[in-house]
What does this fold into?
Amino acid sequence: MEEFKRKLKGVLEDIDYDEPIIEYRAEKLSKTFMMLFREKVNPNVALDVFYTWYLPKPEIKRNLDGETLVYNKVIVETLMRTEDYNRLKYKTVIDIDTSFSYTIIFIKKLMDLLRRETSKSKERGKGTQGLASILSYLKDVENKPENVSEKDFEKLKELINEAHRRAKRTAENIKELKNLMGGESAGNKPGSFVFGEVMEDILRLASSAYVTEILKYIKGISKTPLVDIRRETYPFKHGVYDGIEMGKDVLRILPKELILSDDVFFKKFVDSQLLLRRRVLSREQGPIYVLLDKSGSMIGDKTFWARAIALALMKEALKHRRKFCLRFFDYLPYDIICVKKGSRTKEFHKLYRMLLSLVSGGGTWITGAILTACKDLIEERVEGTSSIVLITDGRDVIKERAVKKGLKDAKADLVTVMIKGSNESLKRISKKYYVVVSSKNYSLKIVSPE
It folds into this structure.
């Protein structure tokens, strides 16, 4: 950290650039940038961009400590003047993951755009020294921009806006991926999403246009309850308080009933009309088990829809503290991945990596996938009923008798979500059978065909 003590300066008020936490952030940003892109970054610029998004209300200093900080000021001022600054800031403020990921991607995109413009100017035989020196400054604090014209400053602002648009998408995707795994809940360690060993892959996933497309569909999925995710409860007089009911159990009686006259009290007692505290215990439930078809017939919109529905189900399962399991299948079942509330970031990364990057292709064997899921649930040995959610286009012949027996042995209900297809066998053996209907603006409706 010693290498930053001499160099760290910035343009933002209320930040002591000599503080250990500031030096730590500078070191982390620099090391991450080097690890991801194999090039250096000016820690002064990285810090100012990071705190522009991280702080609730950052302000720029009136008097700057050095002439090179004017470039930091241009970057920060331009970002603060973007049309969506306040809207995006709502997602980044006091959020290490989104602010950190935005900073890394923004500076990388800005460097790439400066290289592009420099290359274009060379081809046209125009001067490139101004933009090239700004690029050098972004890489190393020791490099001082020279011969930068007013035209270069205007071009820099234009490139900052373009880099912002690209980095914004990554930050928003990081925020959404965190929310899906319960990242906003109390007790989650801030920064674990991009600071851990999975950081490089998470940033690459979040920057992908394919992932952006899937996440857009999640927001538009109708709130149709595919499965009853909430925990089942049963009455137990020593359980947790769950409202009020009527009866004659004097051990659970409300205090207000004790002030009644004897005649009224005993009349209500005989008629079981006394107000009582209702007490319940939660019944153990099996996991929400999703089987996701990745066969060749699912290529295109079907893939986006299916994976968005699977992620929406995961979010609901974790919200209600149910275990969530996912298994892809084509002509063979793939490895199962399970997560639950409180799972390590590494486990979510494994699920995200498969769900958001596995390419559709191959044949289809739905019967084999369902029987494999039944076998998994039997080995789980969970009391109560589990739910198997099959997301498919239904292009296969189903062995109904074998599937019914497997579901009965596993004490599981089959819920089928049909995407641009139909299958009468699945309709007969499923407890619930839905079809997905698309409407405008990435909206998906999951409806019953009846």
